[in-house]
Each structure stands twice: as structure tokens, then as C-alpha cells.
């Protein structure tokens, strides 16, 4: 049993590191991996200043995607406890209503609203964000938390690969569309829940739809999480009024892990963080004054900015690659909007893939 677990551990680590030539990279990756476990949180949290979260956000509103479960729901509870208005963006009505009841009960705050949106459906995301912008006068925080790892290559209504559509395109369209609303709100912040898994990926700009070669969902997911880090850096440069951050919650015991990575979930057992531990840095980035004074665009773990590349890693991108990535997202987003404008009720099939 022990030997089997050790072998599983080694096989997952070597799979994540399969392109890595540098032993320094490997050692650093394993160190980062261990810090991301529950023990790592317990050590890191000894340095947290509890006064950082001694705040009230009554009158401020926060949108959280995937707020019905795991890290998103724990974040919603924490923000509601501080008096904030919570906009839950969820795809499943029943799950959302059940979660809302629990958030209201735990926080005593009734300012919790549900919006049913499938983040994989690009046009629906854009329509929702446009409508939200018209309906609400302000939005102080956007938390891009919803994420998925779909193991088969499937396409959404617009022909985009579903992991990319949810983890990258949904985040891009939602954030980009809400930027004008955030800009006119007080102390605006955007936090995106990425993953330390992105450290093993270099931004890939020639195959955003994962059409080439073998479809490895773990690597596609890690690529999407790298894309979120690059996006955050670019948004921070382009929008100085808003504070952008992206973060790694650590390895957390949630349905996403138990269903998408059952082998990893079994292997980690009680080393996984609780959802509250996973949500801690999201909440700190969304609410604390200290966080808003950090440089915009950084990658955080356990309330600290951390490097986005392993030492000596091959994962750095050129300015041209980053520009190409941003242009492709902009073009895809425009295609979704043009299609919606031209045919608001009809089937959505932009010609971009
Ligand atoms: N848990 C970890 O160890 C870990 C590590 C690194 C990063 N993360 C990231 O943390 C974030 C939250 O995940 P979690 O671990 O808390 O898992 P979770 O409990 O399964 O939560 C994921 C949430 O995302 C929602 N979601 C997925 N696809 C969606 C879509 N197309 N439209 C709308 N909502 C969608 C899920 O909705 P349903 O309930 O309807 O499925 C759920 O509410 C994700 O971005 C994940 O990549 C997690």
C-alpha cells in the first residue's frame, strides 16, 4: 500500500516535470508543492497579521464565480461575514440556492444574490456581464474562481475547447467587460484563482484550442492557469486604477480535486488544505488594505507575492508571444460579441476556429 502510494506520488510529480531539464527546477517545484499542502499553510499562517482582515466592507459588492462550492463558497462566506454584498455566479440553480442558504446562515448577511451563468458559454458570459454593468452602479471586487478540468476534448457553442473556454475565455470576457464598472467603483480589485500547477507550463500561443497532439487535460488545465497569470500581468499594466492579483490556493480538499484528479486526491489524503485555508489568500487579496498596497499584477501564495517561474525555468515568454496571446483573446472576444449583435436569438457559431 505504502509502496503503491509512493509510486503514484512519483508518477504524478514526474509527469508534471516531464519537460523539465533542470534539477534545480525540480527541487524548487517539489518544495513549492510541499508548501502548498496543509502543513505549509499552518507554517505560513503563523506570520499572518489577524488585523489585516479586521475590516468592514458593508456597502461594497463582490462577484464570485463558482461561489456554490469549495474555495469560492468559503470566500463568499468570509466576505458576507464582513458585511459585503455577494454576487454568486454559478451554473447550477439548485446547487447555487443551497449554497446561498448556507452562506446567509453562516454570515447572517442577506445581501447575497445568485446569477446563473455557465462560464464555458462565451456568449452567455458576455451577455451576463453587459446586463450586470447596466443594472448595478458599482462592483468593488471580481473574484474569478470558477475552474474546471474536462478530460475529453469538448467544444462549447462557439467551437472553443471547454477548459480554455471556462478557465481563460470566460475569465477574459467577464473581466474585460466589467472593467468600466470596476473603474468607477471604490477600491476596485480583481482576483483570479490560478494554480501552482501553471509553473510547469510556458505560455503556448500557437494552439489555444489544444488541437495538436495528445489531449492531456492536466497539462491543458495548467496551461490555462499560466494564461491567467499572464492575463493578470497584462491587465495590471493596462488598468492602473484597478488592483489585479492572481493566486495559488494550495492543494485543497474540494469536489474539483476529488472528481477531476481522484488519484491525486487519494494520494494526498489529509495533507490537503481545508476550503477556508484555500480561500484565505483570496479573501485577504479582496479585503485587506495591505493587499491593495502591493504592486498590481502579482502572483500570491499564503498572502505573499511569489515568483511566476521556477529558477532557470524555460517558461518565460517573449513580448511578441504575450502580444500574440492578447490579440487572439481580443479577436475571439470580438467574434463572440459580433455574432451576438448580429443574431441575438439565433445559434451562436462565430467563424474563429
Ligand atoms: N482545490 C485545489 O487544490 C485547487 C488548486 C489550485 C487551483 N484551484 C482552483 O480553485 C478554483 C476553485 O476550485 P475548487 O477547488 O474550489 O473546486 P470546486 O469546489 O469544485 O469549485 C469549482 C467551482 O467552479 C464552478 N464551475 C466549474 N465550471 C463552471 C462553469 N462552466 N460555469 C460556472 N461555474 C463553473 C463549479 O460549479 P459546479 O459546482 O456547478 O460544478 C464550482 O462552483 C478553480 O479555479 C481551481 O482551478 C484549486
Automatic annotation (TrEMBL):
InterPro entries: NAD(P)-bd_dom_sf, SDR_fam, SDR_member_12. SUPFAM superfamilies: NAD(P)-binding Rossmann-fold domains. It comes from the Eukaryota. PANTHER family: DEHYDROGENASE/REDUCTASE SDR FAMILY MEMBER 12 (PTHR44656), DEHYDROGENASE_REDUCTASE SDR FAMILY MEMBER 12-LIKE (PTHR44656:SF6). This is Si:ch211-165b10.3. It comes from Oreochromis niloticus. The gene is LOC100697743.
